[in-house]
Design brief:
mainly beta; 5-stranded antiparallel beta sheet; 5-stranded mixed beta sheet
């Protein structure tokens, strides 16, 4: 048995469309079956079943993933040559009908094994290959990038890797056992060394929160960030400084229940995700009902002088009267806000049962004012005097017209 002394990771990146699912959720099956003392890999995709393995090669599947319309199988092969045994990593890509699109074997050292297939983003996959060698001090780590499922090597990275760590959509790499990571691979195979920022775009506004990854010394609004993954979840203007470059972004709150320049006829409640909020310069608590009619401005303050303003109007719901109306019966006025009848403050539900000319006003927030002028004319018997005057005028007019008609007929004869 050959002594295995050194273990390190060999990483391969693939670019494939779609998303990765667990093998249990995919319509695929990867099992080991015994065949004359050797283990053979049985791969099943839909109704197609095929085998890998013979007397000299035993296949072991560590993972079976569904990537959009492709299935990826990964694992290792036990290769027996006489009395010697080595281990090769393998990667098989098929379509959903079981047709093999790509088959890759990783060999060249004593032992190699594809341990897992993970997603960086919707297009980039990382194939993690564990490699062992019996030659002390000899290291050869590579990062390979493939397009789709066609074996198209576009980048070879040859450097000893001591640590590999995935955070978000970045795979961090280090040639040292301790300290900060000095390299990273991002979405679509983007390689960064020494410094870099992914997950955000310069000049963009994000709603509620954003998460991004960094490599190298990074400052947020002048303060040094620790670690490699960061989340900003408070409204504000932000500046991210990294590697001599600056990114400017905004975080805005999620506001529900109100729209700018809208007019509302009933009470509303506004929900604000985060921020220091004011309503017409008074502190506003998210979700509190607004019932008083008026002109309003909602202002949400955040970091670095950030402000978001929304103006709206809440109308008073006045019922029982209309502007410039004439009534012959008592009226009951219902309203919301501060009501004044002929300059005397009244309460909602007031009944007016005396004849007269009236002016009703509603006052609300921030200079809001609505006025209604109307007349009530009732006699002791409840008859409408104006109606009687109108009836007399109509009869008089009719008599005059009739007289003219009679006179015209007489002259004609």
């Amino acid at each position: 048995m050959i002594m295995l002394k050194i273990v390190f990771l060999f990483l391969v990146l693939l670019t494939l469309p779609g998303s990765i699912f667990q093998a249990s959720e995919a319509p695929v099956e990867a099992t080991r079956v015994n065949n004359d003392g050797q283990w053979v890999l049985r791969l099943s995709v839909g109704e197609t079943v095929f085998f890998r393995g013979d007397d000299e090669n035993a296949y072991y599947a560590n993972q079976a993933n569904l990537i959009d319309e492709h299935v990826v199988f990964a694992g290792y092969i036990i290769v027996t040559e006489g009395m010697e045994r080595t281990y090769d990593g393998f990667l098989i890509v098929t379509d959903t009908e079981g047709q093999i699109i790509m088959e890759k074997t990783y060999e060249g050292s004593v032992a190699e094994e594809v341990r897992s297939v993970n997603r960086i983003d919707e297009e980039t996959l990382i194939v993690q290959l564990r490699k062992e060698t019996s030659e002390p001090g000899f290291y050869r780590d590579r990062l390979h990038f493939y397009k789709a499922v066609v074996l198209d090597n576009t980048l070879s990275f040859e450097r000893e890797l001591k640590r590999v760590h995935r955070i978000g959509d970045l795979l961090y790499l280090s040639t040292r056992h301790q300290g900060d990571y000095s390299m990273a691979v991002g979405p679509k195979g983007l390689f960064m060394e020494v410094s870099g920022v992914t997950g955000i775009a310069d000049g963009k506004t994000y709603q509620d929160a954003v998460t991004f990854q960094t490599l190298g010394e990074t400052y947020l609004n002048g303060e040094l960030l620790k670690g490699h993954q960061h989340t900003i979840d408070y409204p504000g203007h932000y500046v991210i400084d990294n590697g001599g470059k600056s990114l400017f972004i905004d975080i805005e709150p999620i506001i529900k229940g109100v729209e700018n320049d809208a007019v509302y006829l009933e009470e509303i409640s506004i929900e604000i995700s985060k921020g220091h909020s004011f309503l017409n310069y008074d502190l506003y608590l998210s979700g509190k009902p607004i019932t008083m009619p008026g002109y309003y401005e909602l202002r949400v303050e955040g970091v670095n002088g950030y402000e978001k303003r929304i103006g709206f109007t809440l109308e008073s719901a006045v019922s029982g009267i209309e502007d410039d109306a004439f009534y012959q019966e008592p009226r009951t006025i219902s309203f919301i806000g501060d009501g004044f009848l002929n300059n005397h403050q009244v309460s909602s539900g007031i009944e007016i049962n005396q004849s007269g000319v009236y002016r009703f006003e509603i006052e609300g927030e921030n200079g809001y004012n609505r006025s209604y002028t109307f007349e009530i004319d009732i006699d002791d018997k409840g008859n409408k005097k104006r109606y009687m005057r109108m009836e007399f005028a109509v009869v008089t007019t009719a008599l005059l017209i009739g007289g003219v008609a009679v006179f015209a007929i007489y002259r004609k004869r």
